[in-house]
Write the structure tokens for this entry.
Amino acid sequence: MRIGYPCINRSIGCTPSRTFRLPSYSDERLRETVKANLACLMKILSYNVAHGILFFRITSDMVPFASHPVCTFPWQKHFADEFRTIGEFLRFHRFRISMHPDQFVLLNAPDAGILDRSIGDLIYQVQILDLLGLDNSAKIQIHVGGVYGDKTSSMERFIKNYERLDDSIKGRLVIENDERLYTISDCLVIHERTRIPVLFDVFHHAINNNGEQTVDLLAPLNNTWKRDDGIPMVDYSSQQPKKRAGSHAECIDLKDFRTFLQSTVPFDIDIMLEIKDKEKSALAALTLVHDDPRLVTGNPGDT
DNA sequence: CCCTGTCAAGTCACG
DNA sequence: CGTGACTTGACAGGG
């Protein structure tokens, strides 16, 4: 089991998501931005190793406009050495890595242009993971997409479009339940047809479900991840008290997290903490686990 | 220097 | 019908 946090670190003094406005685009601006983002990523990863945090989500903002027509600069070649170095570091320390395209990536979009742009973005994210030299246990997690007034046909469209994807994308793609439209049961239906692994978002499930109990879902979900996929990834977050249901908490609710961990034994999973204070909550969660090893299967970082 | 409207992209729920 | 929310705020112009 590993514990991780997404994209940025709030205590380290740099961001790996530096960007600029589209009208300011130039190859030079792109080079300096990506260079700074890569340097910051390395800094975050070093911090994570020093603190035993071996699960990390790399931001899709690493290379601004990577899948936009304006970007013709061969950043893949230009930064190949930097990516390789970071990748060696990741493999040496046995990191687990994920990426999460933003809401504009919709594999079941009826609009051909939206689908094209979505696939373009997936190709970009695959390139990042490939340049890092990571195997197919490094995953790209997306939601099923929109409903477009007809859920059944929208799920069919997802399946059809998924099947047409290049194997390099298929090997890394996993689907995640969302908080409004597609539940875990929907994802499992799609899995039956495509064999795509299903990533369990605990928080979304609490808000949007078909009455399934978490404890009953763990085995079926676990089975959707094959050997090459690595152990299942899970997204966990806490409700921000007194805010609308679904808003992410500022810091982790350790009592709730402990209860969740207890319910997952004996399944070995990697847990992404989607909490606003990022590494701070990850450290708190790790401390909890170290103080009570019975909460997890295996040791933190041991898988 | 700080404030804040806006940013490449899409969908849906809510008020 | 405009706005907020989404895995993640940061840029850049104006005061």
Notes: Residues 6-8, 15, 17-21, 24, 57, 59-61, 98-103, 141, 143, 176, 178-180, 201, 235, 237, 244, 246-248, 272, 274, 278 of chain A lie near DNA strand C (CB under 10 Å from a C1'). The mean pLDDT of chain A is 93.
